[in-house]
Amino acid sequence: MNISLQKAGRDDLVQLHAMQVEAFLPLLDIYHDHDLSPAAESVERIIERFEQPFTTYWFIIADGERVGALRVCDFGERCMLSPIFILPRHQGKGAAQAAITLMEQQYPDAQVWELSTIRQEAGLCHLYEKMGYSPTGRILPVKEGMDIVFYEKQM
Fold first, then answer.
1. Which of the two ends of the chain, N or C, has the fewest CB atoms closer than 10 A to its terminal CB?
2. What stretch of H or E contains 95?
3. What is the mean pLDDT of the chain?
4. Alpha carbon of 127 to those of 101, 120, 122: distances in Å?
5. pLDDT digits 0-9 by tens, 102-143
6. What domains are defined for the chain?
7. Backbone angles phi, psi at 22, to 5 degrees
8. Residue 45: beta bridge partners?
9. What share of the chain is helix, strand, coil (3-state, %, to 5)?
């Protein structure tokens, strides 16, 4: 599978929103975290983030098809990945892993990368740890059976 990143433009945000909802809906169905889930975000919220001077959205392209997306918050020597997602039918094929590697290469000034995920989602935690991200020790309890765990990677 050939993976690349394509910068999203303002005209892409409705499609990006639809993809984000589709990708995060299974987790929303499990955790019912309507206040935090990217599946519950409005397209207006994505537009607000798009307009932040430190934010860039990227589509994840696999063999010419948009299979997911990610958002980078670039603070110079520190960057944050939030969120990253792959459409359900394309998950488990290595697209996220390849996209993270490409993303890190796009920001050579970043000395530290940050991200967070649901602690109870072992597969997501494993992916990030496999990519060199380490838990910071910070855990944010959200509700019974759901915590957010924070990761960082030193470059």
1. N
2. helix 95-106
3. 98
4. 12, 13, 9
5. 999 999 999 999 999 999 999 999 999 999 999 999 999 999
6. 3-154 (3.40.630.30)
7. -60, -40
8. none
9. 35, 35, 25
Token duo for residue 53: 């001077």
Cβ neighbourhood burial of 25 (10 Å; 0-12, 13-18, 19+): middle
Token couple for 38: 């990217």
Q: Return the closest-CA partner of residue 140 out of 124, 125, 123, 119.
A: 119
By CB atoms closer than 10 A (0-12, 13-18, 19+), residue 49 is middle
Which residues make Cβ contacts (< 8 Å) with residue 80, sequence separation at least 6?
Answer: 72, 73, 113, 114, 115
- For residue 99, is pLDDT > 90? yes
The amino acid at 118: I
Place of tokens 């696999």: 62
Tokens of 88: 């359900």
| pLDDT tops 90 at residue 1 | no
